[in-house]
């Protein structure tokens, strides 16, 4: 049997990590300053249906695994029920406005691998009430923070269809690092999907956290709700330079 010094083992085999798995996410609320994330429940279906399930919301489902619901309440109710039962290694939260208690959207963990302490933030379904607001940024911040600080994961992933430009830009804006491009990753709704991968790992998190918290601070917004310091500037302030652009391969035709 071969034996190594600690230094040799580190160089040849990599660093030692805890052998026990991270806990699987539980159905607990994650509370924020502007929003609360509440475990998805059947009584959320009506509020969600009105903001993401109508014919006018069809474009919201372009890059989701599900087809648009276009006003089909029975199919939408079945969708909500299936996401509560957690049969697909996912854990869903409904996004509530902190002050009004209005439902704003959905988000989940998925691809949860406790043994490797790896988890993904996905199924990001932000209604028009939430898009391009500090509330949407707080949702993502709360999910990342909960994964690292409460559950003890080492890696938080963000993946999206390569054609989904807003999702790619959001990943970079939140401080995720671009890691790769998976060509013809899978077939979705009869079409070939290329997938772009991003991640934040545990040693990245302290700096990313400082930037996100500084940007989300009430002091960073004027009386009209306009930001004073951009999130890109906040990242730079705490030592992380956000890439100026992200050049990725186009979808092959």
List keywords for this structure.
253 residues, eight-stranded mixed β-sheet, transferase, globular, alpha+beta, 8 strands, Aminopeptidase, Acetyltransferase, EC 2.3.1.-, protein N-terminal-serine acetyltransferase activity, 30% helix
Question: How would you explain this protein's 3D organization?
Answer:
Its EC number is 2.3.1.-. InterPro entries: Acyl_CoA_acyltransferase, GNAT_dom, Ribosomal_N-acetyltransferase. Keywords: Acyltransferase, Transferase. Pfam families: Acetyltransf_3. With 253 residues, the protein is of the alpha+beta class. The protein has a single domain, classed as 3-Layer(aba) Sandwich (Aminopeptidase). The protein is built from seven helices and eight strands. The chain is globular, with a radius of gyration of 19 Å. The N and C termini lie far apart (52 Å).
- According to CATH, the fold-level topology is Aminopeptidase
Number of helices: 7
Measured between the Cα atoms of the first and last residue, the distance is 52 Å
- Quote the beta fraction: 25-35%
Percent helix? 25-40%
Could you give the order of strands across the largest sheet?
A: 1-2-3-4-5-6-8-7
Task: State the domain count.
Answer: 1
């Amino acid at each position: 049997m071969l034996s190594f010094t600690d230094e040799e083992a580190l160089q040849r085999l990599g660093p030692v990590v805890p052998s026990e798995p991270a806990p699987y996410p539980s159905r607990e609320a994650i509370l924020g300053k502007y929003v609360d994330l509440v475990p998805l429940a059947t009584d959320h279906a009506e509020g969600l249906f009105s903001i993401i399930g109508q014919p006018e919301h069809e474009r919201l489902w372009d890059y989701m695994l599900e087809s648009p619901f276009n006003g089909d309440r029975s199919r939408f109710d079945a969708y909500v029920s299936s996401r509560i039962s957690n049969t697909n290694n996912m854990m869903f939260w409904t996004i509530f406005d902190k002050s009004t208690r209005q439902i704003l959207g959905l988000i989940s963990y998925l691809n949860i691998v406790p043994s490797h302490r790896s988890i993904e933030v996905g199924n990001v379904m932000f209604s028009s009430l939430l898009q391009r607001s500090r509330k949407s940024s707080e949702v993502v911040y709360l999910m990342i923070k909960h994964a690292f600080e409460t559950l003890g994961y080492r890696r938080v992933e963000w993946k999206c269809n390569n054609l989904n430009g807003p999702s790619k830009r959001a990943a970079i804006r939140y401080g995720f690092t671009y890691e790769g491009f998976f060509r013809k990753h899978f077939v979705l709704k009869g079409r070939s999907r290329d997938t772009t991968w991003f991640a934040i790992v545990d040693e990245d998190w302290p700096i990313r956290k400082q930037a996100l918290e500084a940007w989300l601070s009430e002091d960073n917004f004027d009386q009209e709700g306009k930001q004073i310091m951009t999130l890109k500037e906040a990242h730079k302030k705490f030592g992380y330079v956000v890439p100026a652009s992200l050049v990725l391969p186009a979808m092959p035709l």
